[in-house]
């Protein structure tokens, strides 16, 4: 599927770069004949596997994974529409089974509250059943009418991790929101993707939530990508779906809930933040192949070199590393191109001179070269990979710091959002937010910002001059 396909456009023209890298690096095939629906190539799927195994590792510490049905009967789904007015404009309906019309139309889950909560109403009986903390990783369907884009805005979200928790009190649910924010912060740190956590304004919160906290990544073009959300649902859904429990005194109480979601946008951010003009750049933990060995074959010692490469591969595999030897009949340069495009963090070259000198030449994906000792190769490779991962995080953090600009006037903010995000003081009222959005044609992303890159100084609202707090203003996907 992958021969040398020429070079990527520069990352400066981010949109073209993004579309090209998805097929050149064999992440996604966008040729599937349904709008907003795309196909994972095996390499892309292997990246997804590595990324979601980290997400599962973090969630499995104190959640349980489960799986609810895709199909939601209209009567349950419409409870959400009547009370919560969320997804009726985005939901797909199944109306037939074969040639016979269904007596009850079935919704394809756009998210699973209306599939899960009728079951939670059966499962939650007593305070002893709480807290209940489940998650699932499923495909969900949303009839998006805005511009669809692979991994970013899909009609079939293929990798929708949704957690749904139930608690005895509003305060317990609030603490769960804080726990979820910690999990998301750790998850994105492991992806070496800096995120900014903030509280969405009321008019942008999740339908049916008391409030929504969001994680935003800054993409290379300065636009933000909402890469995760955590919702405090209060008792809004437990009222609608009658999720109640007997408390310690024997009284019936309505439960309090949270839900929090991440989709394959986390992979869009991973690719976009780290990728360069040669292709994917993957943190070692997310790389399907962590080390590629390229034997430099000289005719007269070809067998000896291949043997030595195989021994090296075995030693590294036995040390738990994901290693591949590229012994295809291609010149080394074509091999370097191929594996750089796929984002392999470390390449080892092994030629006759290296064998004689008992060394292995290495080059990490950012081009840093070194000569490693053959004796100590496993240790030295692990250190090289660790150093590489740290340099990815540092590089990404430097870039984010450059893209965040404090602005004291609407004009300054307007300038900042051309290729970054603006931090302005906002009083928090909707009129000033509307004024900012009207003047700058950008939205207030959120306030109550949690970010090591942004302070929490007070200042005059850039519109009404009343006391304001830092708020994020940006164009977003
Ligand atoms: N059309 C889409 N394509 C890709 N990702 C999406 C799409 N819509 C939403 N997402 C991602 O999914 C996350 C969770 O979606 S959400 O609507 O905010 N929240 C929920 O659905 C809640 N039930 C929490 S699971 C969002 O933060 C966003 O990162």
UniProtKB/TrEMBL annotation:
Origin: domain of life: Archaea
SMART domains reported for this sequence: ProRS-C_1
InterPro entries, sorted: aa-tRNA-synt_IIb, aa-tRNA-synth_II, aa-tRNA-synth_II/BPL/LPL, Anticodon-bd, Anticodon-bd_dom_sf, Pro-tRNA-ligase_IIa, Pro-tRNA-ligase_IIa_arc-type, Pro-tRNA_ligase_II_C
GO biological process per UniProt: prolyl-tRNA aminoacylation
GO MF annotation terms: ATP binding; proline-tRNA ligase activity
Catalyses which reaction(s): tRNA(Pro) + L-proline + ATP = L-prolyl-tRNA(Pro) + AMP + diphosphate
An annotated GO cellular component: aminoacyl-tRNA synthetase multienzyme complex
Aminoacyl-transfer RNA synthetases class-II family profile domain mapped to chain residues: 36-283
Subunit structure, as described in the record: Homodimer.
Protein purpose: Catalyzes the attachment of proline to tRNA(Pro) in a two-step reaction: proline is first activated by ATP to form Pro-AMP and then transferred to the acceptor end of tRNA(Pro).
Stored HAMAP family: Pro_tRNA_synth_type3
UniProt xrefs under NCBIfam families: proS_fam_I
Family note: Belongs to the class-II aminoacyl-tRNA synthetase family. ProS type 3 subfamily.
Designated name of the protein: Proline--tRNA ligase
Source species: Methanoplanus endosymbiosus
Taxonomy of the source species: Archaea, Methanobacteriati, Methanobacteriota, Stenosarchaea group, Methanomicrobia
Gene symbol of the encoding locus: proS
